[in-house]
């Protein structure tokens, strides 16, 4: 018949037969590892959010610069047309003299 009282050797082991101190050490190690991975993951998420904000800002700046360049090109083209009209008028005035 099996005795209900544990011997000192049985008290040092868990139900699975692993030493209790070793089991505790493994649990602490795995818990520390998981906590470290969570911190790394959080850091990566924060860095990704920061980089996304920088990317969004730069994309907006690029879109604004493109719009400004297109507006400047339009204004330049308009000025070229005005210059061409004035040159034609000057040429016509010189012919009529």
Provide a quick synopsis of the model.
The protein is mainly α and 97 residues long. The chain is built from two helices and no strands.
Looking at this protein, list some descriptive labels.
single chain, 97 residues, mainly alpha, rod-shaped
Could you describe the 3D structure shown?
The protein is mostly helical and about 100 residues long. About 85% of the residues lie in helices and about 0% in strands. The chain is built from 2 helices and no strands. The longest helix has about 80 residues, at about 20-95. The chain is rod-shaped, with a radius of gyration of 40 Å.
Described by the principal axes of the CA atoms, the overall outline is: rod-shaped
* Strand composition percent: under 5%
Helix content: over 70%
Order of helices and strands: HH
Described by strand count, sense and barrel closure, the largest sheet is: none
Q: Specify the structural class.
A: mainly alpha
| Global Rg | 40 Å
What is the straight-line distance between the termini? 135 Å
- The DSSP helix count reads 2
Number of strand segments: 0
Topology diagram in text:
Layout: H1 8-11, H2 20-96
